[in-house]
Amino acid sequence: CSLVDWSKLPEFSAKDFMEPDERRISRLLKQEPSIRVVNISAGIRRSWIKEDLPSCTVLQAQNDFESNIRSWTSLINAFPEVLFVVSAGNEGRNLSISSEYEDLIWARLSQQPNLVTVGALNKNGVPFRSSNFGLVNMLWAPGDFIFNNPNPTPSKQASIRFFGTSAAAPYVSGFAIKTLHHSPTMTIADLRKILSERFILPH
Known about the structure:
Blueprint: H1 21-31, E1 37-40, H2 46-52, H3 58-78, E2 83-87, H4 98-103, H5 105-108, E3 115-121, E4 139-142, E5 144-148, E6 159-163, H6 165-182, H7 188-198
Parallel strand pairs: 1-2, 2-3, 3-4
Antiparallel strand pairs: 5-6
Helix pairs in contact: 2-3
């Protein structure tokens, strides 16, 4: 029972990285039916598509974004007994505002019953200024970690700081995996209930 980097698994080779993430994840879940939790510490914004491809029109960027949403929706719906834990993003945006909600893929998919979105808390237990916020049923977890490397070399630092919502999401994923390890028949609905009671925004 562990949290592993799926991109490092032997089932994947360099050519697999030419595929979109959702296809690779789908293939992995079909090959490994025991997987119950998928952590995704990455985001897709409609505005980023236009920035990365300045030659495309606003309409082309919108169509590409909507295609991404359909692909991820199909993946999430195809595996209802898998919990997808995603990072909320680090732009400090209020996702309850329509324009911000529409721009972020995980906000658009936040009502999926087997997906949870995670914001980041700093060491004082309050949200990072940069953490996105505002989604209903959003989870909150520590998002500031220092990892010590016991064998530092000139090319590897003695410690690495990992912070933001990309760090907070694996914290929730790890807890979810441990919970399922102790209760392997637990439903995703019951697991979400436990997570929502534990990873709430402190008052």
